[in-house]
Amino acid sequence: DASHALDALSQEGLSEEPVQQEKEAAGSGGGGVWEMVVANGRKQRRRKSCKGRSRMASMEEDEEDDDEEETEEGGGNERQREHPFIVTEPGEVARGKKNGLDYLFHLYEQCRDFLIQVQNIAKERGEKCPTKVTNQVFRYAKKAGANYINKPKMRHYVHCYALHCLDEETSNALRRAFKERGENVGAWRQACYKPLVVVAARQGWDIDAIFNAHPRLSIWYVPTKLRQLCHAERSSTAASSSITAAGVDHLPF
Amino acid sequence: DASHALDALSQEGLSEEPVQQEKEAAGSGGGGVWEMVVANGRKQRRRKSCKGRSRMASMEEDEEDDDEEETEEGGGNERQREHPFIVTEPGEVARGKKNGLDYLFHLYEQCRDFLIQVQNIAKERGEKCPTKVTNQVFRYAKKAGANYINKPKMRHYVHCYALHCLDEETSNALRRAFKERGENVGAWRQACYKPLVVVAARQGWDIDAIFNAHPRLSIWYVPTKLRQLCHAERSSTAASSSITAAGVDHLPF
DNA sequence: AGAAGGACCAGTGGTCCGTA
DNA sequence: AGAAGGACCAGTGGTCCGTA
């Protein structure tokens, strides 16, 4: 019973590694040897076997897990974190110990793939089927070897990905402008909010509906801050237009 | 800012009590004096002011809350629980210290009204908007004075309500049959699963889709046991039909 | 300084089991 | 015994803040 789903999981690229590993390399990657991997998109990282298992009832019990400690990274336990992001133009690959924005957006697509796998397993087993990228999906991604995916990171940049999905032109223009000005990732990230609010204004302010209407965006929770910005902007817009209307018709001056 | 939503809340029947109180009486009611209330549907219970406030950020901060301890129930603190349910026919009012099944189903409609209010408040404030009857909705219902609504009860009978929504004919027939046989509520409740599985079979087994397609049912989580039953039944149906097919075509006998 | 992510926390879904 | 519901608990969404 439980083994069916696990079969489905490992069915694909099992000769060497689970298939999702392959996608990891598409943009760029973490640290250590990963800058060399960028273009060919084939070299694969062996996943660390994670010894401390969770005792959860369902789904995420281990596939095969027989690799030893780590064989990558020159043997040391030096690489701790992914390289930081820098602002890159569309199509541009980050140089040095940096990751580019195409790679960032690629991570969102990978999470989507992981969600779809989790959904397929859940359906096969007749269990509750998540519609969003939940903790369960992040846990699954980690188990599948995608240690470079984590919840705080993905949540942090969701609205940037949203702009990329909803208005790629504007997103691309913003990336070019911020790269040219030499801005850091934090500044670019902040700047992504405003054009998104403009998109929301154009479409009637319902940011949840806007996310849900987009096939790749619908699986992400609307970030709190984006929701608040849309609400604040709608309110002040509505207030000023009602003042205008009232001023002409009713106010005593 | 916060006051708008509260206005909307109390806007309606404020002369005496919040309007949702009125609906409470539609079927029958809890204990004490409530059996007398059944038919006219007007007498209203004053809500207990709940002194221990939650410190939650949003929504459920108190409306007006000025009534004193309790003035109902002959003064004593005797009534502790709702009267138990008994199996009644459609339209039949329970006698004695019992509640009928129309009243049970009415509670589901009330929860829906509470959800809609919570949703309206959330939308006005630009906050996350629940699509299901969540803990937040139960908390809101309690604050609004509907102390007779609680999560374990509502979850316990969801599938009974589902059958009522999805196949009222069958639901009514089941009620009549179980009443006639003098079965207790537990037996009736158990018996509601099977016809639901039949409904699911007819509609392609996707019980989540079936719930979601129904406007009054879509706000309820699919009960775990119902999901499991549908899955088990689909699996064994599929297995036996594939054995049949395989037996004719491929098996060596 | 700017940024990645382990780890925490309040409130959730789910339901058991002490209560009447 | 049959049933109502307080209260608990594992795992969630959300993000802070100690880390590098």
From TrEMBL, chains A, B:
It comes from the Eukaryota. Residues 73-238 form the Floricaula/leafy DNA-binding C-terminal domain. One of its GO terms (biological process) is regulation of DNA-templated transcription. Keywords: Activator, Developmental protein, DNA-binding, Nucleus, Transcription, Transcription regulation. Residues 13-87 are annotated as: Disordered. It is found in: Nucleus. GO terms for cellular component: nucleus. Residues 59-75 have a biased composition (Acidic residues). Residues 42-54 have a biased composition (Basic residues). Its main location: nucleus. One of its GO terms (molecular function) is DNA binding. Belongs to the FLO/LFY family. Probable transcription factor. This is Floricaula/leafy-like transcription factor. The lineage of its organism: Eukaryota, Viridiplantae, Streptophyta, Embryophyta, Tracheophyta. The chain holds residues 125 to 377 of 377 of the full protein.
